[in-house]
Amino acid sequence: MILVLFGAPGVGKGTQAAILAEKLGVAHLSTGDAFRAAIKNQTEVGMVAKEYVDSGKLVPDDVVARIVEEAMGGEQFATGCILDGFPRTRAQADALDGLLSAKGLSISKVINLEVDDETIIGRLLQRGRADDQEDIIRNRLNVYNAETAPLLEYYTGKGLLTSVNGIGEVDEVNQRVLAILS
Length: 182
Ligand code: AP5
Ligand code: MG
Known about the structure:
Layout: E1 2-6, H1 13-24, E2 27-30, H2 31-40, H3 44-55, H4 61-72, E3 81-84, H5 90-102, E4 109-114, H6 117-127, H7 134-148, H8 150-157, E5 161-165, H9 170-181
Parallel strand pairs: 1-3, 1-4, 2-3, 4-5
This protein binds BIS(adenosine)-5'-pentaphosphate and magnesium ion (MG).
């Protein structure tokens, strides 16, 4: 199963992806986590990604492709995975299709978690990651609306998209997602 968890910053992609990966026994790939690890380890990709991640801009597609190809080459990705925060542009969506079709795989579903902006800002300010400052959060939301949200229409057109209310207890949201998968 290839599941894409889609949605604005702070909707709960990472939280739900971790629970689903555990319950379904598949790998979890968060491109945000991958970039933060690369930055911490000062790899070549990390050095390029840093200024984008720090300011809440999208890392350029070619750099994203490098980190995703590397991660998805791993043994645990042979049969399926949960993608969290990828793809975020049409170029990334096309790159993903290419990577998957080379393995004889395709996207099973795209789950779009929906949470209003003020709830998102409240959640992220409480979490307090380095990029969870109000001005950077608002920039991430703007970037999402301008560059990533157009993929909603793309995946709707492919019949892959289902939207889920992301407000409520974590378990409650998880049950809504599982209901779609069953
Ligand atoms: P990334 O790490 O993906 O950040 P993001 O998209 O901004 O999303 P978050 O991780 O902040 O939120 P989330 O939806 O995972 O929510 P979470 O579960 O943590 O990306 C960071 C940066 O990396 C980007 O800005 C960009 O620079 C770069 N990047 C990454 N991928 C890229 C790509 N594909 N292309 C280009 N650049 C890329 O939840 C948030 C908080 O809410 C947590 O504290 C959580 O505990 C809490 N919470 C979760 N669920 C609930 C609930 N139901 N009720 C109450 N609180 C909840
Ligand atoms: Mg996340």
